[in-house]
Amino acid sequence: MSKVGYATYIKDRCDGFGGESVSNIRMADVAAFPGMAKRLGMDPGRKHRRTPACNAAIRSRGIEAAEVDIANLKSTMAGAKVEEGFMSAASPGVVAAFFVDQFYGSRDAYLEAIADVMKPEYEAIAKAGFVLQIDCPDLAMSRHNEFPHLTVAEFRREAERHVEALNEATKNIPPEQMRIHLCWGNYDGPHHHDVPIKDIIDIVFKARPQGVSFEAANPRHAHEWAVFEEVKLPDGKYLIPGVLESKGNFIEHPDLVAQRLGRYATLVGRENVMAGSDCGFGTFVGFANVDPGIVWAKLATAADGARLATKEFWKR
Prior knowledge:
38% of the residues lie in helices and 10% in strands. With 316 residues, it is of the alpha/beta class. It has a single domain, classed as TIM Barrel (Alpha-Beta Barrel). The strands form 2 sheets. It has a 6-stranded parallel beta sheet. A two-stranded antiparallel sheet has the order 1-2. Helix 4 (92-98) packs across helix 5, helix 5 crosses helix 7 (152-169) and helix 9 crosses helix 10.
C-alpha cells in the first residue's frame, strides 16, 4: 500500500513537516475511560504512524505518488466489472488536525497552504476519470478530538473555514465528480462526545462535492436518519449513508441493509441514495478490527441488501 493512513500520508508527499511529532488529537471520549485509552495505546500499528509538526513552508514534491495510485487503481478496475471507481484524498482540514502548525501562525494561513498543496492531487484524480472522495473527519471528529474546548457555535465557525478551504482547492473540479466523507473517527471507542449530525449538516452541504458519505450504521449514529425528516436535501446533492458498521465483525443481514437504505430513500428520494460503509475498514496501518474475510462478506451483504431496496423502490 502506498499510504500508511488516509491522512498522514501527506508528510511523505510534501516538504514542511519536519517538526517534532506532536498531536492535536485528544480523543475526549476515550479519555473518560482509562482502560480503553490503554488498550488503544497498545495498537501495534501506532509505531508506524508519525505526525510531525509543520515547521516550514509546505511544498509539494510532485504528484508522482498520486499518479502511481491512479495507475494501480486503473489496472485493478480493468479486470473487474465496475461502472466507476473512486479514490480518496485527505481534506485540508484533516491535514491541519493531524499536523500541528508551528510555522504559519494562523489557522487560515495554514489551511490555505494545505489547500494549495493538495489541489494538484485532487485534480489529478479527477482528470483520471475517478470520483474524488475527500475525507473530511475534520467536519465531525475534530469536534471532540481537536476542539473539545469550543462551544458548538465556535466549532461550527471552524468547520465553515475548513469547507471554504476545501471549496477553493476543488474549484476546478465539477461537483458531480466529487463526494466527501463525513466521519466521527473510525476507532473502536465510546463516541459519547460525538457532535450530532443535525448540528453540522448545513455546513457539510456548503461543500462543493455532490455526494455526502457518512456514518449511519454504528450504534452512536444509526438513529440519525430521522434528522432528514426535518432537514431538506439540497438540490443536486445525494447521500451515501453507511449501511455497514466498519469496526465490528458482525455481518449485517441483507434485510437490515435494505431497511437502512429504505429510511433514507423515503425521506430524500430513491434517486438520491447510495449504499456505503460507515468508514474504511483499515484507515491506518494496524488499525483494522475486522477480519479481511469478513470485510468481503460484509460488502457482499451490502450488495444483497441494496438489491432488495432497489427491488422495493424501483420495482426491478
